[in-house]
Design goal:
5 helices; about 0% strand; mainly alpha; about 85% helix
Length: about 160
């Protein structure tokens, strides 16, 4: 039974990782730069709105659903360690869990929480915005690479099967 379920789970993890990698890539490649080019109070307000709007059922289903699938794949890979794909399944899953979920929880969300408390029109918010933009974007690059690397490994595993 698990042998038939595993390719489906890997496929779901690949799709989820790819969707999330694409979202993060968009922010890394142009969204954050566009927000930084407009006046700081507008950039802050826009990012506050984005951070609020992203907490929706569809995004959370993909983001957290992929995390759940990867957790299941970690367990499957550990219990089937003799399978030649086990190391790849484990690596892809850990890349997503650490590079996407953990970095989001430990780095990006705390930055978002600080930004959420700022009044965009306050004079001191400009300095915070510069710091936020730099730190958030660096960590987003990490999330992008982690999710994309996970996608690449999952596709490789499916190709090997």
């Amino acid at each position: 039974m698990i042998e038939k379920l595993t390719p489906f789970l890997i496929f779901c993890a690949a799709l989820g990782s790819g969707l999330i990698a694409g979202l993060f890539f968009a922010f890394s490649s142009f969204v954050m730069n566009a927000l930084y080019r407009i006046p700081p109070e507008q950039g802050i307000s826009a990012m506050q709105s984005i951070n609020s709007a992203v907490l929706n059922r569809l995004f959370l289903t993909v983001f957290m659903g992929t995390s759940l699938v990867c957790m299941v794949l970690v367990i499957i890979s550990l219990f089937n360690w003799k399978d030649p794909n086990a190391i790849y399944i484990l690596a892809g899953s850990l890349l997503y869990l650490l590079g996407s979920l953990l970095v989001t929880a430990v780095c990006n969300v705390p930055l978002n929480d600080v930004l959420a408390k700022v009044m965009a029109t306050d004079a001191e918010s400009v300095g915070l915005w510069k710091d936020y933009h730099l730190k958030w974007t660096v960590w987003n690059h990490v999330r992008t690479m982690g999710s994309f690397a996970a996608l690449t490994i999952f596709v490789y595993v499916l190709w090997r099967m």
